[in-house]
Specification:
Rossmann fold, two-stranded antiparallel ribbon, five-stranded parallel β-sheet, 2 domains, 42% helix, 199 residues, 15% strand, alpha/beta
């Protein structure tokens, strides 16, 4: 039986490539790391951050398959539920992994989002503004954190992510210049930035 085909921008792909049960290189690497963390110490927990709720849903499906307990905080979770999930995660008996949307982590809904129960942070996709990723890291790297914090950043070689990394480094340099008084503030992507990203 022939595999269904999906046409995307004039190219044809096997439909199975788009199934949310399929493990990409990022998902595979994430699962290897999470399994190692689980195997090394029961007291270490992880926070997985993505800009995309659909990515968090894919991760959740793979966590279930691997027997890793998790909770998810995204835009569909009420503030009361959010606080209950955070409290459970920060307790020793709570889930091993917290999946969190980058937008919730940074929005007003993220105020007080203290995830010090986790000491591993996984950034699955990159944002052009490095300060947003720094704010996500601040969710676990806070007063009260008693474990060493490890940030895992996934960057696929030969993709736009390498260009975003270059752009982040440029933004960090600009921020340092602004703070030292030798530069001007930049809050938006410039045309030059877009050309770097998309050629």
């Amino acid at each position: 039986e022939a595999s269904p085909i999906i046409s995307l921008n004039g190219e044809r792909f096997k439909a199975e490539l788009f199934e949310n049960t399929r493990a990409s290189s990022k998902i595979t690497s994430l699962l290897v790391e999470l399994e190692a963390i689980r195997g090394n110490s029961g007291s270490q927990k992880s926070v997985v951050v993505s800009q995309w709720t659909s990515m968090l849903q894919v991760v959740a499906r793979h966590l279930q398959r691997h027997g890793l307990t998790y909770a998810t905080i995204d835009g569909s979770v009420s503030p009361k539920q959010r606080m209950d999930l955070v409290e459970a995660f920060n307790s020793s008996r709570g889930p091993q992994v917290m999946l969190i949307s980058l937008s919730i982590s940074l929005s007003a809904g993220g105020v007080g989002l203290n995830l010090t129960g986790g000491n591993h942070l996984f950034l699955l996709d990159m944002h052009w503004n490095p300060s947003l990723e720094d704010q996500a890291c601040d969710r676990i790297y806070r007063v009260g954190q008693q474990k060493d914090v490890v940030v895992h950043k996934f960057i696929c070689e030969g993709t736009v992510e390498e260009k975003i990394l270059h752009l982040q480094e440029k933004k960090k340099t600009l921020a340092k210049q602004v703070l030292s008084g030798s530069g001007t503030s930049v809050k938006k992507l410039t045309l030059a930035d877009l050309k770097v990203l998309f050629g």
